[in-house]
Amino acid sequence: MYRGAMVEHFEEGALIGVLTPEPIDRVLDYRAPEGGCWLGAFVEVPLGPRRVLGVVWGPGQGDYDAAKVRAAGRVLDAAPMREELRVFLEKAGAYTLTPLSQMLRLATRAPGLSDPPSMRKIYRLGQGTPARMTDARARVIATLVDYGGLGFTLKELADMAGVTSSVVKGLAAQGAVEEVDTPRDAPFLPLDPDLPGKPLTEDQVAAADALRTGIRSGRYATTLLKGVTGSGKTEVYLEAVAECLRQGRQALVLLPEIALTSEFLTRVQDRFGAKPAEWHSGVTMTERRRAWRMVGQGGAQLVVGARSALFLPFRDLGLIVVDEEHDTSYKQEEGALYNARDMAVLRASLNDAQVVLASATPSLETWANAQAGKYARLDLKARFGTAVLPDMRAIDMRTEDLPGQAWISPSLQSEVGKRLQAGEQSLLFLNRRGYAPVTLCRACGAQVGCDHCDARMVEHRFQKRLVCHQCGETKPLPETCPACGVTGKMAAVGPGVERIAEEAARVFPDARLAILSSDLFGSARALKAQIEEIASGETDIIIGTQLVAKGHNFPRLTLVGVIDADLGLQGSDLRAAERTFQLMRQVSGRAGRAEAPGLALLQTFQPEHPVIRAILSGDEEGFWRAEAAEREAAGMPPYGRLAGIIISAEDAAAAFDLGTRLARSDGPIRDIGGMVYGPAPAPIARVRGRHRVRLLVKAPKGAAVQSAIARWISPIRLSAKLRLSVDIDPQSF
Ligand code: ADP
Ligand code: ZN
């Protein structure tokens, strides 16, 4: 729609409107700088005593005293922001009720945006002949010839040729390699979509064909690519990426977890001969700057990244893949509250691009959109090769003979024992970080809570501290009960992964154990090393949290034991069933990917629970239909609309007061046939010392919820102590 739109130019001195990422929610008037500027240009503008970054958003409004309008400063060295991205920010802001300036902040996270262009040295093939040709030297020359005269940094070239940098330097001294200064932000190595991919199975070919046809149409569409773990979804969507690159357009692959990127990078390298650009919090400033610029100039064909990559200034984005689309981490829970999956659909629709939502266990929203025909749906039915889905069984914990403070049942122990004998791996899964979720005093029963939040402190034995999982506050384990003063009676209650690891070490003293839990790895690199170690078979038993449920390939893993399958079913969250179903199926899918068949055992106290039964029977469509019917009857998403209004203050009463006032003035919500519930404590009721109160707006599906909420809350003047944020389509309800 906005693809390839014309760009307007403003003459020097013309009145222009500039949007800044500063917290002023309006476009300000300036005069176009010396030499004029393009619509969308990044400029520096005076704001009070400061100079700030801004984007030329349109012609000026002219509602200031013309004599007082100031001139914009210099135009920055970056491609103007395209209309497609500007419209995307406006629409995404309108949908999530986020101020436009805050949306712009998401799109200007480019380090060094206002720096002048800088140079760096690259090395390419020279005309000289080396005096003496060694093996190492020959490899350097061969690499350069291979890449048809492209230049590389010293480190890149040395790495590619497998030599030390002194070898390259030596060649440079003799003129066989040439040292050249080029702009620092060099294009990424070209990806070749026509390198041969893996031969696909019949199912995979059909799915890849459908996706390729979509890409070639040059129109917007969203497709759900559903297939069990290991069915080859990644292989298939890489074919869509290939087609997109052939069309000369860019592609973006979103992953829910940075830890998954390195495996994905390798697969891209195998398929296309080079690595894509990366965009997530683990990338260095220099690389981020390069990625941001190259995405804008077309020097990056494929980006793999976290949800924030959605706001990059693509030159012509033709495909967005959202892998593991059901993953809750796609929802940004602070600042602008957006769901990257939904925003991907919006952005694609504005640029005639395609979206692929890949998952083994799609969200109910996506499943329903496919049922309704809004999204296309492709199914990969079988696992690749001889790998079959694991057999799934429940272990009825009511009949297992276990002492107190032990969680690995005799039945599970015996299966793990068999795997140890056979030299195969087992995974013990518990979705709970730390050692014990509760620390209490055996004298008075008091539990240790966080001083700032409404949460219990969780013991982390490796860190030797109690940690609040909500705000990150830590404190030492108390010897003495803070409530009653008795010493030596503090006890850990319940299991976390660290405690399961301790138990596993006791039960299987000769096994090699590894714990995978996000808090135990200081860096993405350490985590990657651990994952590689496991994949290479140097581990017998993996003890892990949610982190392992996401897409890693452990070929020797044949047994998954879920320590507490009931964990997610407690509590009142309406999504509990959906989440448990997804998580249990994901984690079970880890077993038996290669030749060895897998087994998944779910320890449960309620084997007759409908969700547990659905998981075991594998009747997915039946499960979704039942869930959907329940939601529809209750008018809940995706069959009705929900929005949360979160009010926070240090003083709980002040937050409740405002909540009550709002609830009483609910006219605009009732006008659209909606209802206001609350105020009630928010799902996370206290964070960092602030009390949070939530109002829940429920409205019929087609209702104009955003504009009603805007009318409803706009008369409110917030005192400095109160904060209010709107959460459209909240994750928990
Ligand atoms: P998913 O994304 O559905 O979990 P993957 O694409 O990761 O599945 O495939 C699972 C494993 O099977 C990977 O190791 C992949 O390389 C392999 N695989 C899938 N399809 C093929 C194929 N057609 N030829 C060779 N290997 C394949
Ligand atoms: Zn806390």
TrEMBL record:
Cofactor(s), names only, from the UniProt record: Zn(2+)
GO cellular component, one term: primosome complex
Cofactor binding, note field: Binds 2 zinc ions per subunit.
Enzyme class per UniProt: isomerase
Binding residues for Zn(2+) 2: C450, C453, C468, C471
Annotated EC: 5.6.2.4
GO terms of biological process kind: DNA recombination; DNA replication initiation; DNA replication, synthesis of primer; double-strand break repair
Keywords: ATP-binding, DNA replication, DNA-binding, Helicase, Hydrolase, Isomerase, Metal-binding, Nucleotide-binding, Primosome, Zinc
Reaction equations catalysed: ATP + H2O = ADP + phosphate + H(+); Couples ATP hydrolysis with the unwinding of duplex DNA by translocating in the 3'-5' direction
Alphabetized PROSITE patterns for the sequence: HELICASE_ATP_BIND_1
Domain Helicase ATP-binding: 214-380
NCBIfam families on file: priA (TIGR00595), PRK05580.2-2 (NF004070)
Record function comment: Initiates the restart of stalled replication forks, which reloads the replicative helicase on sites other than the origin of replication. Recognizes and binds to abandoned replication forks and remodels them to uncover a helicase loading site. Promotes assembly of the primosome at these replication forks.
Subunit structure: Component of the replication restart primosome.
Annotated family: Belongs to the helicase family. PriA subfamily.
Protein name: Replication restart protein PriA
Lineage start: Bacteria, Pseudomonadati, Pseudomonadota, Alphaproteobacteria, Rhodobacterales
